[in-house]
Design the sequence.
């Protein structure tokens, strides 16, 4: 049965999702879109003729013709919108973060527990990236032995002028936080932010190195560099007892020209994770039909926000920060 | 509007297409399937509950609830089924070859010309592979200068025991024939088959080297090796005046283990061209809705079959064979 | 003029050096060898007919027919032998470490200062590896901007049963310590050892992650893993303001076989650094003729030993350790 | 014992050899140099103080203080100089070609046979390149099965204005001719030159594709492109029954910058084959001391010249050309 989606937020991520839903996902229809900027909403309607523009997000959420909601609005609105979806008992896929604060995340978990039912997915799309999926599968296959270290790289071309040092953690490193938990099936106990020499091309502490101590002893180190200039580049290497597993930077071609052989980097995350986004939306659609959820849960969303918050403390103090998590409700086992 | 597809042929390719259509393509529904083997058809129905099994292909083609037809039946049936689709004036995507004989292809072209309308697409899926698409785009961008040579590799793990030497050309090299025309926007004038030392792992002339002389002077050389053992591996390098453009063998990971760093090859064409098949089916679906056709046309299907036939002559004679094509009707401009 | 070399130590490294000197270096002759194990010394004499076996190292050092001395004896003997070379005012190339203790290193520096002349080179061969040399040259070229982070990997196949956790630092990481100083032209202020989950294939804390804070703010992180199983693998990536510079694991071939495309790792450091050793011995020979020294100086040898000693403290305490160096004498500017 | 070398020719190749001999080869001394251009000879003498300039090459050859001769003079002088070395019964390493004509080569073979002793090596340096050597070793190891096809690429940045179409074969492809014989241990029976579309950046037939039919059935295809613009690039892939063996373009670093990750090509053959030249000169020096010869023999030099001559015929006729060789004297078994 075709799943009818309502989209909240028609900015870069929202438009991208609308475009994928309408042109590359099976069994789904975008039927409603809400954005305070009417012109942006109108663009989505133009692209998806079955979609109506709805002024108030809450009306979209409550509309009986909307089966499930995709939240791609500004970060600070996520928490309340997800709660409204839970009130309406509708599946919701919320772009990261689940909520801007740890408390906001815990409220959502409390509401899901009250419903005794999981309806929330958080858009940590790397869980659908073929590379990360295959890395996890390869680790589980067992022949590489146990994981010991995970090296990560997360580089953006150039940050917006409004970027701050904590945002390297809350906006960017948060993906490594979730990816490490996903690949390693382990929880994070301690986070340390190390501050190398800064690039002169930015006024903030950029790059940073994040160290995560997992509860099974694995150490994750991640370079976060949001003004790396040369390209959008996300890498990971998993060091195991018998060998290593490394993501390949995706590229279809190499060219030999001007004295070098090269492949190209994308300028942002969308081309890099295009197949992850498509797979995420396809899996979410399919799961809705079967009453299940996929991807990062509300619990995963909470943990990512909590670990990032501890990271911001470490950045400020220059010391390791302990990650103190609530105990995990059985609903999320 | 949802496009309703009827599938003829529920073998390896047919099942694969059904799986993609039902789980990864937007705006489409598989509504009917026909296969002489009832059990195979039943499996498709199980996967796609909206689909009915239809005994006679002709009934499927004529069914008013079928908007368009996907032909994935045995090669020798293609020609007649495509003609039946044209009789019913329905869009048809036919797996290669368009028809088993040059005459069969010409009949289809005559019928399309009589309709004065293009309804046929031929499943040369490389036209939708991100690598070939990007190679063509890069060539057209102009900064590499004119193409001069195209080197191709086409290796399969192991051929079926019934494979014959001409089948290297008609079944395998035919993809290079179409890909070269697609990338280079040029026509083939002459084909030569060179016969190297044979592998002892097969009783036939395997590998072979195919040389194509294009009408703009470009030479294409292609190694075809259907018992290459190590993996399914398709490669191409375009040599231009200012540099070269090379396909990267797709892989998500490398592993370092047992004294080497490696990436894996798939065992057949389906993983290698998974995104090409999906893109092909998505583009075809979209085109149906807008009354257009995409991919290789009936003309392209004819040329591929005609060039392969000349290649079989060259294999037999040990001499270059001229490719004598009909003149191209304006319908295919 | 041919430089006449005396070699002390005919073990793995000594034999390797003798082999290179006698078969691949210009302007040099191995004329004497000393090793407590007469059989090992005899093997060298067999390979280099111009060489005589000398029982006491001190006799070799004082022999007027020996122009310069190559020390490849056990680590704990290095300090005294280098001092004896300085007493004889002969150039000496000493395998790392310069001396087993910081005090031993300082004594050598004091003696060189008393002579007011540099005669000592320490065998940190990476300073002659084409990759590291080119990395440094590329950084100095300036177009990459300033260095910000250096990521290092140092993996051995399997450690000897007698290996201890501190030896990961004093024997292995010491190469990264010197290489970072060489590439970055900066001094180390602080070292921190992070201890990830241990491999079950060893009884010691293996792997370890070393963090170096350089005096220009650059942070160096280095994974040291001496039971990595899959191969000897040394890597480095320098992250700069405008891009990154990465060492390529050297290999002459790739093979496609058994479903994967692969290149091979060597089983130990000798093939990996064969050209570095040759270049080192060639440059040293040439420098002797011109009265100069090359490569790591006694000062560099002292710093490497001092930083490693601080690392051993950090490993024991679990805390960062400050690196307190003497002030550098003008002789080493 | 130190081998005393006389060098004839102080141009690009001669200077390069002198530089390697004097700074990177063991057991050798350049003692004489002859070049019609006194200034060029003087530069060599400056670099190698033991060397004297000698006006007449014949005096250099006859000089009793010269043990062996290195011929790096213009191509058309090679034949006579090698004959003079044979008259003097001195080992000679002659840059390719052995002689400009097939007859010139046969005269040298006749003279060696008369002496009943091999003194001639021809400078086909790829026989000492680590990649080609390893490719041959890997093939001989046997686990890849028999070789079936060898694909070769030979690209130069830009040809001199005086280059002609036949020179692609006689100057460039001649290296592939020798390398194929070396790797495959097989003889060439037929050569065909295929002429693709020409680059507009040159007035001659460039590129060309050379096909060699070996006497064991292996087919070698080689693209020769001497105005390839982007870099000096030599590649080879050996296709065997169980897999393939491919040369890796040597590079020490990759850089990520300006939206791409790249490695650099050299601008000419000297950096690409630097280790081959060093190994060749080292092996030749060592062989002289033991009375042996290494590398390509006079017979190999003759075959290369004869095959290239047949290739020039094929280029002119547009037809395959049979390679008719003398029968190989036992001296060259």
Sequence:
């Amino acid at each position: 049965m075709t799943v009818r989606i309502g989209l909240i937020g028609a900015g870069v991520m929202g438009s991208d999702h609308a475009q994928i839903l309408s042109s590359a996902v099976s069994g789904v229809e975008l039927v409603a879109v809400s954005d305070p900027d009417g012109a942006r909403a109108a663009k989505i309607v133009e692209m998806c003729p079955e979609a109506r523009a709805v002024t108030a997000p809450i009306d979209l959420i409550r509309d009986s013709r909307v089966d499930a909601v995709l939240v791609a609005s500004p970060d600070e609105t996520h928490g309340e919108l997800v709660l409204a979806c839970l009130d309406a008992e509708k599946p919701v896929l919320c772009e990261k973060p689940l909520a801007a604060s740890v408390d906001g995340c815990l409220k959502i978990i409390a509401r899901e527990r009250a419903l005794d039912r999981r309806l929330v997915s958080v858009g940590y799309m790397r869980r659908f990236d073929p590379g990360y999926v295959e890395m996890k599968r390869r680790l589980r296959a067992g022949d590489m032995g146990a994981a010991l270290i995970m090296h990560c790289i997360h580089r953006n071309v150039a940050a917006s002028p409004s970027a701050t040092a904590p945002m390297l953690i809350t906006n960017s490193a948060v993906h490594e936080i979730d990816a490490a938990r996903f690949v390693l099936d382990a929880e994070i106990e301690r986070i340390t932010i190390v501050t190398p020499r800064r690039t002169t091309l930015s006024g903030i502490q950029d790059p940073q190195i994040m160290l995560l101590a997992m509860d099974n002893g694995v150490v994750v180190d991640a370079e976060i560099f949001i003004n790396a200039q040369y390209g959008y580049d996300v890498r990971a290497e998993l060091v195991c007892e018998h060998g290593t597993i490394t993501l390949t930077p995706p590229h279809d071609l190499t060219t030999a020209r001007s004295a070098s052989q090269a492949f190209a980097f994308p300028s942002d995350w969308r081309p890099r994770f295009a197949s992850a986004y498509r797979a995420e939306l396809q899996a979410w659609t399919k799961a809705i039909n079967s009453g299940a959820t996929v991807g990062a849960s509300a619990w995963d969303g909470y943990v990512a926000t909590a670990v990032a918050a501890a990271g911001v403390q470490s950045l400020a103090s220059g010391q390791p920060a302990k990650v103190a998590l609530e105990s995990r409700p059985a609903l999320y086992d």
